[in-house]
Each structure stands twice: as C-alpha cells, then as structure tokens.
Amino acid sequence: MWQIAEERRVEQGAEAGHSGGRSWRTSDAGRSTAGAAGVTRERPGPYDLGRSSAIPVLCSQSEVGGRLGTLAKAGMERWRDRLALVTGASGGIGAAVARALVQQGLKVVGCARTVGNIEELAAECKSAGYPGTLIPYRCDLSNEEDILSMFSAVRSQHSGVDICINNAGLARPDTLLSGSTRGWKEMFNVNVLALSICTREAYQSMRERKVDDGHIININSMCGHLVPPPAEIHFYSATKYAVTALTEGLRQELREAQSHIRATCISPGVVETQFAFKVHDKDPERAAATYEHMKCLKPEDVAEAVIYVLSTPPHVQIGDIQMRPTEQVT
Ligand SMILES: NC(=O)c1ccc[n+]([C@@H]2O[C@H](COP(=O)([O-])OP(=O)(O)OC[C@H]3O[C@@H](n4cnc5c(N)ncnc54)[C@H](OP(=O)(O)O)[C@@H]3O)[C@@H](O)[C@H]2O)c1
C-alpha cells in the first residue's frame, strides 16, 4: 500500500483535510462554478480564506439541476411538501443536499451557525423557481439547548420533521498523542452528540405525529470504515466509526419499535468542500493541496446519493453508500 511516493501522497489524502503538502496550482482548480444559475466565479487564492475560501461555499445550481432534475423524480414524489431537516446547510455537502431536496419539492429547514449562507441559498432556490422552500435556521449544534429550540420551532411552525439529514461535521488536527482535549470535544460534540440528539428528536417528532415512513440519513465518511494513516485524522475517524455504529444501532432500535422509519448512512471519500480549509485553518496551502491529488467527489455527487436513498420504495432500506473518487487509494 505504501510502495511508491506518488501512491503515498494520495493515501494521505484519504479524507479531505489530509494532503501531501503540495502547493496550490491555478490550472482548472482555479475556477469553479458556484451560486445562482451556475454562475462561474473565480475561485479565490489560498490566502483569501478570511474572506471566503478556495472552494465554492454553495453548490453549482446548473450541475444539480441537470443531473438531479431528471433523476429519481418518480420515487421522490411521495416526499413533496414534506419537511426535511438538513444540518450543516451553510456550505459544502449540506448546501448541495438542501438545494437538491428543494428542487424535489420538499420544505427544507437548513441549519448552521453561518445562517447568512443559507439565506443566500434560499434566495437562489426561490429565484430559480424550485417547487420546494428552504427555511434558514441559525443553530450551534454543539449546544443542546440550541438543538432543542430548533426542534420546538419546527414543531410549532411546521408540524415536525419527516426526514433528518445529519450532515454537519468537522475535523480538527488533534492527534491522539498530543492533540488538545478542546479539539476532541469540538469533533465529538458535533459529529457524535449533535447527530444523536437530532436523531432522537427527529424520531420523537415522527412518532408523535404517527409518521411511519420517515428517514434518518447520517453523512458518515470512509473514515468511519477504515482508519487512515495520518495521525491528525485519527480522532475524527473515531467519531465517524461512531456514526457507523449509531446508524446500525438506530436501525436495530427502529426494528424493535416495529417502525418503518429508515436509517441510512452515506460514506464519502474526499469531497471538494471547505472541510480541509477548516482542518488546516493555519495552513491554507496544505488545505488546498488536499483537493489537487485527484479528481475529487463534488458535494452534488453526495446529494445525488441522498436523493437515490430517499427515492427507493419504502420497503427498501439502504444501509450505507460507500463512495470514493475513482482515483482515491484508501
Ligand atoms: N469533505 C470531505 O472530504 C468529506 C468526506 C467524508 C465525509 N464528510 C462529512 O460530510 C459532512 C459535511 O462536510 P463538508 O465537507 O460539507 O464540510 P464543510 O464544507 O466544512 O461544511 C460543514 C458544515 O457543518 C456545519 N457545522 C460545523 N460545526 C457546526 C456547529 N457547531 N453547529 C452547526 N453547524 C456546524 C458548518 O456550518 P457552520 O460552520 O456555518 O456552522 C457547515 O455547514 C461532515 O459530516 C463531514 O465529516 C466530508
């Protein structure tokens, strides 16, 4: 697995956030589509991160419109006008998923701390004429009170949650031998605890309204199935192993409760988002290099997997979708 230098570099990119330390290139990686109607925006340079990022915050409308607009519509009909909660909808995978669901006619509550990004996405969805709506909600998922207030606002204003997409997550570069407890707690609080609280509250919301066909989808990672060599990702990997166990545990509890609510996780490899820039917030060049090793997955690829999972007939429960960039080694 570690024979040649080139392969080693790619190995280190097993999850966004881990690069072989190559420098920023300005070839086609210097441009990306983002924002309304697939408008092409210049990608800012690696030192522009304070302002924005080197990766689009929102997803490409034209890409998702073209691919998801025609795919899986039949199976998605039953979800029209129903309510999906998407955590971490302010960028990356969560924004792509929120947009895709609005395109399929759902009412989507998108939450994150940076609510301005979700408001922008909501305006784009509206001006694009998508049949659903995106409702932005500011929530710090590391704070249980915030999560509970969000669920009670959803209950009072929109009845309740039919689909819960636990997407919010982060990695901090805190190794097991010398990392900070603070970094570990940040990861644990969002990746494991918030996901579990949202799952419990979403289930209770479905149960009290006698919703028996709901769906809980956890955005896991390939790091939830194998421990990649870079030390900085070991604790993160442990949180994603927890997501693997939590998804299967949830499936079993739902069976015991004789519920038809479904539990699924989606486990991507490297996806080109802000993720690596948050991991390596002090080393943007290293972060940018993460996405240069190979043609990475796009947030829209993961959104398509979510739509596929939701569009299967109610008797079909997808347990996990493992998806990597074709060129990814680990
Ligand atoms: N990118 C990858 O290569 C990759 C691969 C496999 C799995 N994943 C998983 O995919 C999910 C999404 O990641 P991404 O790549 O889209 O990363 P991203 O672009 O960094 O987005 C992360 C999202 O999580 C939200 N979030 C983080 N902490 C939060 C908090 N305390 N409260 C509320 N929201 C919070 C962020 O919103 P605010 O900061 O605005 O609050 C943001 O919307 C994560 O679970 C990640 O582990 C990513």
What would you say this structure looks like, in words?
The chain is an alpha/beta fold. It is built from eleven helices and nine strands. The protein is globular, with a radius of gyration of 19 Å. The N terminus is likely disordered.
Structural class of the helix and strand makeup? alpha/beta
Q: How many extended strands? A: 9
Low-pLDDT parts are 1-14, 17-59
Mean pLDDT metric: 84
What binds here, in terms of ligands, is:
NADP nicotinamide-adenine-dinucleotide phosphate
As a whole number of angstroms, the C-alpha radius of gyration is 19 Å
Order of H and E elements: HEEHHEHEHEHEHEHEHHHE
Work out the helicity level.
Answer: 40-55%
Largest sheet: 7 strands, parallel
Shape: globular
The rounded distance between the terminal residues' Cα atoms is: 9 Å
Biggest β-sheet: strands ordered side by side in the sheet: 5-4-3-6-7-8-9
Question: Count of helical segments?
Answer: 11
Classify the beta-strand content into a percent band: 5-15%
Organism: Moschus moschiferus (Siberian musk deer)
Keywords: Oxidoreductase
Catalytic activity: 17beta-estradiol + NAD(+) = estrone + NADH + H(+); a 3beta-hydroxysteroid + NADP(+) = a 3-oxosteroid + NADPH + H(+); 17beta-estradiol + NADP(+) = estrone + NADPH + H(+)
Region (Disordered): 1-48
